[in-house]
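Re: weekly structure request thread

Next one in the queue (510 aa):
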Amino acid sequence: MSHWIIFPVVLPALLAPLLGFVMRHDITLARAASLAGAAVLLAVAVGLAALASDGQTHVYRLGGWPAPFGIVLVLDRLSALMVLLTSALALVVLLHAVATGWDSRGRHFHTLFHFQLMGIGGAFLTGDIFNLFVFFEVLLIASYGLMIHGGGRERLRAGMQYVVMNLAGSTLFLFALGTLYASTGTLNIADLAERVREIPAEEAALVRVAMILLMIVFAVKAALFPVQFWLPSTYASAPAPVAALFAIMTKVGAYAILRVHTVAFAPEAAAVNHLPGTWLFPAAIVTIAIGALGVLGARRLMVLLAFSVLGSMGTLLAAVALFTPGATAAALYYVVHSTLAAAALFLVADLVVTRRKGDGLVAAPATPQNGLLAALFFAAAIAMVGMPPLSGFLGKLLVLDALRVPGAMGWGWSAILAGSLLTIVGFARAGSLLFWRSTAEPARAGSEPSAAEVRPAGVAQIVPVGVLLAALALLAVFAGPAFEVAERTAAQLFDTPGYVAAVLAPAAGN
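Done, posted below.
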């Protein structure tokens, strides 16, 4: 069964070239193969989650080489959860892209989509920081191609900003890797955990430099202040299905912060001395504020959604910054919620925008299915802003409860509660303009979209959004069991000796 651990990397790596070279001229065949691959990937992710549920750390050693000399993939509850979330989201987004025809606006959509899945899956499973860099680069290349899918000057301009920012992050990543290897002699996460603990505080200057450089790199991926400015333009300009898939992209940065700065750089180690959390928490608070103000001032729907994602990342990282099992459990519950809620919003926005003249937040003649689209938008919006009865309310409550510690409660509670209020006002204004005031707006000659644009959404286009909203409802209904899973996942993450023992154990064959 251990061979299945590498499957989330190998399957999309093999399927993507076939889609690109063999099936790119036959959209029907490409769709069938792509959907089948995504479905198989989800089935394997479910199996891996079941395998990881025993609480053991499962290690796959490529070529039978033991760590830290060989490449290892590590499956535990955290990596299994993230791979499962990615696979489920990918299948839903792919169904939407096929149903709406987004995938037919370029020949390489499905190829890039699966390369993206390869990079995400590899980043979640790797046990080595250098290979984390490799999978980050796969993500960058594939996501750039997906972002400019369909063409357009605005997408190209936003894509250039996205690439430049991430290339700068990649350069810093290489500097960090070089510094870290020079000071410790290893880049394996488990091996680093042992060596960093042995370094006296007075001799750890280079380790601290590498640690902070890595924090900056991961902050770029997670869109954390002060390197968050690429996210609003990127998400607002990307095709809606791509933006929905990107909902998991920022979580890769949050995952890297959790994995590397909890295991390799344990906060209690003398060389670390809780330094990451000292910088991370204030940056998260400012990110919440920027996201909330951006939502309040947005004049376009896609920009509003992009800033709401930014605010949710600030909330998530405020909990991560405490680096405690309880706060991490709250963050993991919120990771699942915020990913599904953001994806649902972008898919609903796609259904709305394609039936209007652009995504401007202005009153316009009502579109077909105005009531249905309004209901879907309302449900997704209350999930994102954190209102009952969906899981966002419980997720923010868990984060607020985790922040009830000296030095964090005042700033954390103020930022999250005030940010939530501003976000509610922004979404209420947007919904009013898009749906309520639009019903009273008379149609004017030349203002209506074409007949193709006002075509009612079919069942196949509504189902993906419905699946995501149903998942959010189930996450709220089964919040108790879900949070118990999050608590067990966090407990295993903070069991550094268990992780180190499993990864550095002598290879007994795969």
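Residues 386 and 393 are 4 Å apart (CA to CA). The radius of gyration is 22 Å.
Next request, please.
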